[in-house]
Amino acid sequence: MPLRIPDQLPAIELLKQENIFVMDDTRAHTQDIRPLRIVILNLMPLKITTETDLVRLLSNTPLQLEISFMKLKSHTPKNTPIEHMMMFYKDFDILKKQKFDGMIITGAPIEQLDYEEVSYWDEISEIFEWVKTNVTSTLYICWAAQAGLYYHYGVPKYPLDRKMFGVFRQYPTDSRLPIFRGFDDVFQMPHSRHTEIRREDIVCRPELQIIAESPESGVSIVMARGGREFFITGHLEYAPNTLDNEYKRDRGVRDDVDLPHNYYRDDDPDKGPVVTWRAHANLLYNNWINYYVYQETPYNIDDIR
């Protein structure tokens, strides 16, 4: 089944060129199916890029999904046209009156600020609280993972001397979990961050379960509330060229950014990246939608508690 996404969203044409089946609202209204409602709080500066990355992954499920985009009233993006935001995004104040089967909260380029210094911390704290009773399962990504763990469970973050940058091996700690259905014993995940969470701050909290980690990049996925919350410290959603764009942007500008690890062919930027994470990214998002959203959410969406 296809995704149901807003008419004219730029991702539609981009994904059709990749032979991915998407359905706009006009066509979807002719189908008598209750789609799963997924809301994305997109905090990344290049919103169209992030929309496309996430829609690409969500499009592989056999279930019909209705995608909505949330924005913050307390923050105005600088890198996305206001016309795009007005056409496709709705304020949390509007969407909080609704319930959703699943939610994705992205990273944001603010990780070196203390949480309380973030200009929209009060609003995102309200969203974190709202999610607990209005969404069946939520994926928190990168900065959102750290911020969510801090808000919900008091887990601190720590600055890194060098940016955690590249593609790193991850090992599931319990391969029997449905989120890892079909996974190999090791999978790859891109990381791009200047801060970290530490294992010792998580294992002492019985409500948290580390379900994937790496000897190189540390804790990568934490699960809570039986799968109603997943905190992912990396970026499985990244397109092949994302780390390359970040490296070229920061090279010569920052002094804490190295060549991305395990990314370029022969460690040579001129030879381009080797994509090693895409298959497991698709599996993880499919498994999340199937086992933690579709299998768990009530048919009457208003029954979500």
Question: Could you characterize the architecture of this molecule?
Answer:
The protein has 305 residues and is of the alpha/beta class. The chain is built from ten helices and twelve strands. Strands 1, 2, 3, 4, 5, 6, 7, 8, 9, 10, 11 and 12 form a twelve-stranded mixed sheet that branches. Helix 1 packs across helix 3. The chain starts with a strand and ends in an 11-residue tail after the last helix. 40% of the residues are buried. The model is unreliable at 27-32 (pLDDT under 50).
Topology diagram in text:
Blueprint: E1 3-5, H1 10-16, E2 22-24, H2 25-28, E3 36-41, H3 47-58, E4 65-71, H4 82-88, E5 89-91, H5 92-95, E6 100-105, H6 121-134, E7 135-141, H7 143-153, E8 158-172, E9 187-196, H8 199-203, E10 208-214, E11 218-224, E12 229-232, H9 242-250, H10 278-294
Parallel strand pairs: 1-2, 1-4, 3-4, 3-6, 4-5, 6-7, 7-12
Antiparallel strand pairs: 8-9, 8-10, 10-11, 11-12
